[in-house]
From TrEMBL:
GO biological process terms held by the UniProt record: isoleucine biosynthetic process; L-serine catabolic process; L-threonine catabolic process
Requisite cofactors: pyridoxal 5'-phosphate
Species per Swiss-Prot/TrEMBL record: Fusarium oxysporum f. sp. cubense (strain race 4)
Gene3D superfamilies recorded: 3.40.50.1100
Protein name: Threonine dehydratase biosynthetic
Domain of life: Eukaryota
Transmembrane regions listed in the UniProt entry: none
Domain Tryptophan synthase beta chain-like PALP: 10-259
């Protein structure tokens, strides 16, 4: 938002999201002293909504899924003269998300250890393509601490749009079903945007996980590791667990990217309470 060159008069912004991007947009607008309207689908859970509200954005509810919310946000921006920015088709957004890869690489350099694999959830492609770009640059500087880092995109079997699009080489619309990895279920349509084009050249492997595998990873994180995250984060660990034997002699990193969980809901899933 700070880098938008076509916004000299601080026009208000419009975007669409179900959680993470909404919080980032709201926080950025607050820091920049500008306004943002965030279009969110009708199904957004209360705890996510409250987190977004704390930064003071205008929130509009529209649509049954993220794709409908995005279409409405674009139309709203056009009619109001505000600036629409996409959560997954803006270079600077993808670069910001990808900085987590920079942090990982820097930490391994401090530890004086090599890194071979990075596992991350796929969702709409923004996070995984951002990570993939930085990992690709690391490959160009490959050495003893930076062998050819492989990026593993992990997808829920109930939400396969990006995985199917990567396999086909062009955008694919798929059926979606409810999933513990909530951000995954938001996306049944992948467009031929920056995220898809980058993911096609930077994601090395795709791992598909069932709901049972995601739940097992979620329980592992909460009970064994004391990492209180949501199902979207657990998706990355589920992918690693699924092929752990294959990479057992390599150093792997699992990206836990989201802590947007409802304590009561997660408690019932993890502990059966």
């Amino acid at each position: 938002m700070a880098r938008m060159k076509d916004n000299p008069t601080k026009k208000p912004f419009v975007t669409a999201s179900t959680g993470n991007h909404a919080m980032g947009a709201a926080l950025a607008a607050h820091a920049l002293g500008t306004k943002v309207t965030i279009v969110m689908p009708m199904f957004v859970e209360k705890h996510l909504l409250e987190k977004v509200k704390q930064y003071g954005p205008e929130i509009v509810h529209h649509g049954n899924d993220l794709n409908e919310a995005r279409a409405y946000a674009k139309d709203l921006a056009k009619k109001s003269g505000h600036i629409y920015f996409s959560p997954c088709d803006e270079f600077m957004v993808l670069a910001g998300l990808g900085t987590v890869c920079v942090e990982v690489l820097q930490q391994f350099e401090v530890l004086d250890k090599p890194i071979h694999n990075i596992f991350a959830p796929m969702s709409d492609g923004a996070l995984i393509s951002g990570i993939g770009c930085f990992a690709r640059d690391a490959k160009k500087q490959a050495g003893s601490l930076r062998p050819k880092v492989k990026v593993w995109g992990v997808t829920a079997i109930n939400s396969m749009a990006l995985a199917a699009s990567l396999s086909a080489g062009f955008p694919i619309e798929t059926e979606t079903s409810p999933t513990l990895a909530m951000s995954e279920s938001d996306n049944n349509i992948i467009r031929n945007g920056i995220d898809l084009r980058l993911a096609r050249t930077t994601v090395n492997h795709v791992v598909t996980c069932t709901e049972a595998e995601i739940l097992a990873a979620l329980r592992q994180l909460h009970i064994q590791e004391k990492q209180y995250v949501d199902g979207f984060s657990a998706l990355a660990l589920a992918g690693f667990n699924k092929i752990a034997e294959k990479v057992k002699h390599e150093t792997s990193t699992v990206i836990l990217c989201s802590g947007n969980y409802d304590r009561d809901k997660i408690g019932k899933l993890v502990y059966g309470a």
